[in-house]
Amino acid sequence: MKNFKTAFLSALTLCLFLFLIIQCGLYAEQNKTFSTALADKEKALDASKQTIREKMLEIEDLQAQLAEAVSTDETKTESGFLKKGGLYLIDNENQLWTLRQLIAKDAEIEPGVPAAAASYRLRHSISFFSYGDTVSPFYLGTEESPFRGSFDGDGNRVTGYFPLINEKNIPEAMFYADSGAKIENLDIDNQTYALTNDGIHTKLTEQWEVTELERYLPVFPECSIYLNVSAWNLDIQKTAEALRNRWENISAKNGAYISMTFYPESEEEPADPNAYIQKLHTALYTLAGPEYTKMIEEALKQENGYLWFVRLENVNGLICCTFEIGKPDYYPLSEAYYVIVEQPQNREEPLTQCVRIPYTEMEHMAVGFASNYRLEQADVNFDGKQDLLIHEGYSGGSGGSWGNYRAMVWVEDSAEFAWFPSFPEQLVSLEFDQKRMISRGRMGAGEEYVIVYGIVNGEYKCTRKLVCQSNVDGSVIELFYYEMGELVKTHRLSDWNEKEDLYPDMDYWVKG
Q1: The whole model's pTM is what?
Q2: Is 273 helix (H, G, I), strand (E, B) or coil?
Q3: CA angle 406, 410, 411 (to 5 degrees)
Q4: Confidence tier at 12 by pLDDT (50, 70, 90)
């Protein structure tokens, strides 16, 4: 019995011992599972905290953007930029041109803030096409004064000609920038290498612009050039030599031209204006070439002025040189401008002639200073011969706007061109297909006119004319119709539009 109890106690002890071992194992496994779960919870908590911190930063950024968006605290700098917070805002092409000049001069956009180092935001897409069929290359910064600030395009696009960096459509193509510059969110449409037959229209006001022009001219070897020298004291001799070389390369191409105008926008003159004018003459003679220099010098003596405009162009095989002469005191102009015409080389002896074109009163007021001449071949007097039509630019006023024209006709007997003084000087429509020209406009608020010109006995005459008049309050409207200067008929109208029903073949100034 004693042995049985001893055996029973031993077995029980062993069972308890095994039970405790099992329980300890279960506890250890549970503890391990709990520890793993706790670690996972801690990791999830850390991730949540990180997400919360990121969201808080996003909220703070959005709050800052919202505050900026609703803020009315915009200030305007003396240089014409709106400033919001620490950003200078750019809305249009003119502001980019202003910024370009400020950076090139290493100037400040406002006191204490260098333009090259400031921060900008572009608020609208911009295209640099201000001159019709001509273009002007653009860039921000120079080698001497690189852009080193920040430029946020805000997702907008700038389209233009950026020749000085590379041919890639990347934001940096618009900048001379150093390594510290930050350029982002900007879309560039670089048209530089699509430029073939278009012209470059550019203005020189600072010597650094002369240097940059000489640098980027080789990028456009086939392009025509319209150059406006807009300041005294610029050294343009090398530029003139480069343009002359270009002309020799492109002069055989129909429509090619090289144009240089000296028209200073500032009244500040150099210490010795006569000495500078001599330097200017040297540059313009270089452009014109030795074959035309003698003719230009003879015209200068006749007009008693100085040369300020030369344009070379190929007009359907005719090589033409238009030049203009100014007075030392600018006002008035001399009495005429000149067109040199060189006949094609298929003649036995090439003919070069110089035609004097007297100024009109309108040119004294506006057109002559524009130096915007352009020649076109057309049968001006409808005799079957190709003449030369001279486009002189545009003028206008409260009565409307007109093109200004002169003409040179081909004289078969002398085999030369001659000034055709009867060609109407101010026109709205050139209707060669109908053998007529039309001018129209207003004389005050109560009178509108339409004038039709046609060829009569070899000269242009006013063949038809309409004059529509009304009282100030519009209560009485009368229409007067003339032929060859004689009043033919008078009409009493109920409204201005009736004249179009009465004379539907005449084009009206106020239409649409």
Answers
A1: 0.69
A2: helix
A3: 125
A4: low
